[in-house]
């Protein structure tokens, strides 16, 4: 007889997945003002550019809990910019926004 799936098992797996996604970010800090950076903090790695490779590299390096990584990304804070979060809305972005940084194809 096969095992039955219960809502409790589904809920447990969902919570475990969410915790695994959130916990690595618990050590991250977002500084929007460069003067707010700690002045005497030492970093093992400094990565400039949080594009597809920069953010992945920073994530991989921080798998070691004893490694300090500074990831620098230029531009304004885009939190809450719905048109940037939904790929389908990218066509509605106006040219020369503060977020496009002269991106051309």
From TrEMBL:
Signal sequence region: 1-28
Key words of the record: Signal
UniProt similarity note: Belongs to the GMC oxidoreductase family.
Lineage: Eukaryota, Fungi, Dikarya, Basidiomycota, Agaricomycotina
Organism of provenance: Trametes pubescens (White-rot fungus)
Entries under PANTHER family matching the protein: CHOLINE DEHYDROGENASE, MITOCHONDRIAL, GLUCOSE-METHANOL-CHOLINE GMC OXIDOREDUCTASE
Name of the featured protein: Pyranose dehydrogenase
Gene3D superfamilies for the chain: FAD/NAD(P)-binding domain (3.50.50.60), Glucose Oxidase, domain 3 (3.30.560.10)
MF-aspect GO terms: flavin adenine dinucleotide binding; oxidoreductase activity
Keyword Signal tagged: yes
């Amino acid at each position: 007889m096969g095992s039955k799936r219960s809502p409790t098992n589904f809920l447990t797996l969902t919570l475990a997945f969410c915790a695994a996604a959130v916990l690595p970010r618990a050590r991250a800090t977002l500084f929007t003002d460069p003067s707010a950076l700690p002045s005497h903090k030492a970093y093992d790695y400094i990565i400039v550019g949080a594009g597809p490779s920069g953010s992945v590299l920073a994530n991989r390096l921080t798998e070691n809990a004893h490694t300090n990584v500074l990831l620098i990304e230029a531009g304004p804070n885009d939190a809450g910019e719905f048109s940037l979060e939904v790929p389908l809305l990218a066509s509605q972005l106006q040219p020369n926004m503060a977020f496009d940084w002269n991106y051309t194809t």
